[in-house]
Design a protein that fits this description.
8 helices, two-stranded antiparallel ribbon, alpha+beta
Length: 273
């Protein structure tokens, strides 16, 4: 499995996908000079060397920890997570409010590793928190109505932001821009549902930390910043968390085709139950 992951990690550089683009774009850049098999062997040797260094520096850790592949919004339905107050700490870097095409970025590996057939890719994208797509027009229309009336009762500041974006739309805006306010509204609903479950699973007086990126969009002919950390902090408070700290962080600088639209700033939000 480790070798398969290492090979998977090199697929993009040797595929017909343009490596510097997060979205699907046919390759224009030259292929690497190093043969693929040579690169794989080099990567495996590098991993083994690092693993050896780690094992000689630190003793093996005995742990009963397990990984659970679940939807955090539905964690209560999982037998191992049905009880509340199980954990001393929670840490994550959640999706960044429609900022990145997560499935597109990983689709080569997902299919090559046999984790999903190619025809399921589009459905996976639409199911993710922070997805930039609606599955069908009827789904978009439904979320549009929910956003306009705030039927899900988001905090006033978050709802007003989505509503303001929607009112700034011009008739000439494309379908992706027209869908954005509803997509953001859905994102914040999904994140609230996730926060509810994290709050349930944490012990009292324990911390929940998350790294979140600031985003922006151009609607109505002007740039609008999406202060995701601030809006999520607002949502966290409504589900019972206290905002312990919001710490600005320097984002990893991305280069290439998507650099102008990349996340340039991140914040660490620290909640306390």
């Amino acid at each position: 499995n480790i070798f398969l992951v290492i090979i998977s990690n090199n697929l993009r550089d040797y595929s017909f996908q343009e490596p510097s683009d997060l979205r699907i774009r046919r390759r224009n850049s030259p292929f690497p000079e190093q043969e693929f098999l040579d690169k794989v062997i080099f990567s495996i040797d590098f991993f083994i060397e690092n693993l050896g260094d780690f094992q000689t520096s630190l003793d093996a850790l005995k742990s009963k920890n397990v990984a659970l592949n679940i939807d955090i919004k539905k964690s209560k339905s999982n037998k191992e997570l049905s009880k509340s107050g199980l954990f001393d700490f929670a840490i994550t870097s959640p999706p960044y409010a429609t900022a990145l095409p997560y499935i597109d970025t990983q689709r080569l590996s997902l299919v090559w590793l046999g984790l999903t057939p190619p025809e399921n890719i589009k459905g996976l994208e639409s199911e993710l928190i922070g997805s930039r797509e609606f599955n069908r027009k009827i789904e978009q229309d439904s979320w549009q109505k929910r956003m306009i009336t705030n039927s899900d009762k988001l905090p006033k500041e978050v709802y007003n932001f989505c509503k303001q974006l929607n009112s700034s739309l011009k008739p000439s805006e494309g379908f992706r821009k027209r869908a954005l306010p509803s997509l953001l509204y859905r994102y914040f609903i999904d994140m609230r549902n996730a926060f509810v479950e994290v709050h349930r699973l944490l012990k009292k007086d324990k911390y929940f930390c998350l790294v979140v990126g600031h985003n922006h969009t151009n609607i109505g002919g002007k740039r609008t910043n999406i202060d995701t950390p601030k809006l999520l902090a607002n949502i966290g408070e409504t589900v019972g968390f206290k905002v312990f700290e919001i710490m600005p962080m320097e984002a990893y600088q991305r280069y290439g085709i998507n650099s102008l639209n990349s996340v340039q700033q991140e914040s660490l939000i620290v909640f306390k139950k």
